[in-house]
Amino acid sequence: MSVVGSGQVRGLPDVLRVTFGVEQVAADVAAAVDAVGRLSDAVVAVLRGQGVGEGQLETSGVSVFQEYREPGTDTAYRASHTIQVETKDLTGFGALLNAAVGAVGNSLALHGLQFDIEDKSAMLVQARELAFRHATAKAEQLAGLAGYSLGSVTAIAESQRGFPMQAEAVSALGKGAYDSSLNITPGEHTVEVSLEVLFAWA
């Protein structure tokens, strides 16, 4: 008999990941790339000034493409650089945002933020235990309904999911489009494990 059990464990996040974007439009590729490079350097510099370390910053995307425009208008190219910041300071989002906006103004986009738990190993252990108990209870009930006795476990297959807390993306941030006292709420992070357990008959 094959049954599926699931277990969920909730925990408080200890990591905040923020994704910033810098975009510029110019008449040629070189100018667009050069502008984005200078603006990106400015954003990285102010983030470092906020205490963000070397290993907490990474480029998560770079693109350059020709913008679609109506026939007869000048050709333009858009370059973008996406930077992800990881911090353990869950209350420091406002300061990071203020610093980045102050550095590049309307060229900044906020693509999103995500709370997470860095080490989920203990949560996964607990979720597996809950999932196995759930599967066993279901199997015992089904076996009883069918008039059989439950035997030993012959196979187990696992799948797991994490549900990090996320916020939606915001773009085109102007210098007046943010609140220096902006507060965000981490909420809880959920880890779910599903176990497909195969039992033999006794």
UniProtKB/TrEMBL annotation:
Lineage top rank: taxon: Bacteria
Matching Pfam families: SIMPL
Gene3D superfamilies linked: Protein of unknown function (DUF541), domain 1 (3.30.110.170), Protein of unknown function (DUF541), domain 2 (3.30.70.2970)
PANTHER family: PERIPLASMIC IMMUNOGENIC PROTEIN, SLR1258 PROTEIN
Biological source species: Kribbella hippodromi
Entries under InterPro entries matching the protein: 26kDa_periplasmic_antigen, SIMPL/DUF541
Protein name according to UniProt: DUF541 domain-containing protein
Taxonomic placement: Bacteria, Bacillati, Actinomycetota, Actinomycetes, Propionibacteriales
